[in-house]
């Protein structure tokens, strides 16, 4: 169980001292940016081994009139995956898990829709989002401690998104499966395992995985819509835990990052991971077909990118009206964490991270995408069709010689967030690659058309591979 705190304990988490000038600057600057782009946000910066600045601005809960502070806990969403991956790799260090041994060896009851997938899927496939298990299966299996066990039983009826190891497609379902594997090999339920192997050894005090733990702190509420209003629910279903249910503060996320930068050793000298294992998590494992959205490659948990020739690793997260952003520039001993709860979080992220990376590392982020000034020639027939996976349908149609993509999201996320089908024009970026703009965002997002060696056509968008079905 987490402990309540009433003051900003950056020194307790990292042994750091805030830089007063930098902190004051970012308190003012973040307030300006939140006023322009968001509802509420909290920021922390780790530089040369210390938390040098913290800031918070806007609303933690606009409906209740609760302001965001640096002690407000936000949902970090899929950044949780790197925490789950870290404990999984610690179990590899312990010899109870192995990267390339079939999962079915430790989970003999596993049944997936494809027999070969069941027999051959490994921990490496799960960590690199290359298993082919359809990644967005959000089926509620209850609040009990057996929620992951029940969830894994349901995967037998879920579609295979792509052949095992054939491509990368972001997979929440694979991390829920991984959470169950970790429970089986340790005999410890996932939430408690995270407390034992990470939260307590790192000395974290404003962190949890369950909503009742968030109630021990000042907790941010997600906001959706335009203008943003409090979401109809605070969190996601419990079996999404290993994929995205950690809540905490930016400073505690950066205490976790500092352990990774220090070769797997916590601030008090506790070894969490072997040094070689920590390094291996940051090494490329698989190419990302859409290199414009998040990253060019995926490691073991981390995604991997490059800014101005500088190595970058990190992760993002999104839940109901909350968005989280984490980037690490190891060559500059710099890490930035921004947690938000509504508005145009992508624009806020770009403004904050570009300024900090420029000021503290002399590095600029990749330039935002823009369509070609004049459309590149293409044959619409090469792209028109229906592309579909669990909870998402992409229909590409020709209109006035151009292309329009109709995005329809279904399932629990669509219901809670009130998502309706949206039509988005596709504009050319380069052959086979288009950009589109969602109604709620200013940024252009990439849409990559490609095919696998077996000839199956796919769209890669939002880090997910969606096969052509008609």
UniProtKB/TrEMBL annotation:
One Pfam family recorded for the sequence: Beta-lactamase
Superkingdom assignment: Bacteria
Region: Disordered, residue numbers: 1-20
Matching InterPro entries: Beta-lactam-related (IPR001466), Beta-lactam/transpept-like (IPR012338), Diverse_Enzym_Activities (IPR050789)
Residues annotated as domain Beta-lactamase-related: 30-344
Membrane spanning residue stretches: none
UniProt protein name: Beta-lactamase-related domain-containing protein
The species this protein was found in: Catenulispora subtropica
Higher taxonomy: Bacteria, Bacillati, Actinomycetota, Actinomycetes, Catenulisporales
